[in-house]
Amino acid sequence: MAPYTITYFAVKGRCGAIRILLSDQGQQWKEIVVNFDDWMKGDLKKTCVFGQLPKFEDGDLILFQSNAILRHLGRKHGAYGKCDKEASLIDMMADGVEDLRLKYIKLIYQEYETGKEAYIKDLPNHLCKFEAVLSKNKSGFLVGDSISFADYNLFDLLLNHKVLCPTCLDTFPALKSFVDVLSARPKIKAFLDSDDYKKLPINGNGKQ
Ligand code: 6SG
Fold first, then answer.
1. For residue 178, how many other CB atoms are within 10 A of its CB?
2. Among 83, 127, 133, 191, which residue has the fewest nearby CB atoms (within 10 Å)?
């Protein structure tokens, strides 16, 4: 019996990084897929702490908020640094990823038609911050010398951006290598190649 359950819509969305982390850590999980009509009935929404999905269950622990879920899994599976100082730096990087993810989500759900060109033009100003951190840290990870939940989160968001703008990493060698190295980790590669992953659209409105 899989120890973990994810309840979410049939999208990659805010579960992309969680699923990649679980795969890379050799974990199994159960998916409960919620469709639009069922969600609109409101019964499940009422039971969600913030009225939103994803919901994540680890035994009797029930979590909402995708970033809290990532942190929980980082803590449990040794992907949260080797000391408090590294953990704090990982938090900082994860918050930076969240800032960019929020901009991306705003583009996708609110201003795709009007804002895509300006978003792509401004994107290097955000990507260069991660490039600077990665190129300074010789391990190839954001913090310290092993993978953290912030790396999985950045990786997932960069995959989305490569779909939005296939050339966006061309001027960022450290980011490009980061994506190549993580994509080639055997368990991540197997997951990214799986139908379970490929069948899901990135976002809930069909835009990408
Ligand atoms: C949407 O925003 O999928 N959760 C979303 N939407 C439904 O009633 N801070 C937290 C976190 O990090 C954000 C949660 C997130 O966990 S994710 C949610 O619960 C609601 O608010 C993106 C996604 N979208 C799919 C979707 C949402 C609205 C239109 C398409 C649900 C599926 C179809 C309709 C409602 Fe739909």
1. 23
2. 83
Q: How far apart are CA 153 and CA 97, in angstroms?
A: 7
What does pTM read for this prediction?
0.97
| pLDDT at 1 > cutoff 90 | no
Is 204 contained in some domain?
Answer: no
**Among protein residues, the one whose CA lies closest to atom 20 of ligand 1:** 52
Q: Does residue 70 share a domain with residue 103?
A: no
Cα of 8 vs centre of ligand 1, distance in Å, is 8
Are β-strands 4-8 and 29-33 bridged in parallel, bridged antiparallel, or unpaired? Answer: parallel
Q: Does 175 reside within a domain? A: yes
Residue 14 alpha carbon, nearest atom of ligand 1? 17
Q: What is the pLDDT of residues 60-104, one digit of tens each?
A: 999 999 999 999 999 999 999 999 999 999 999 999 999 999 999
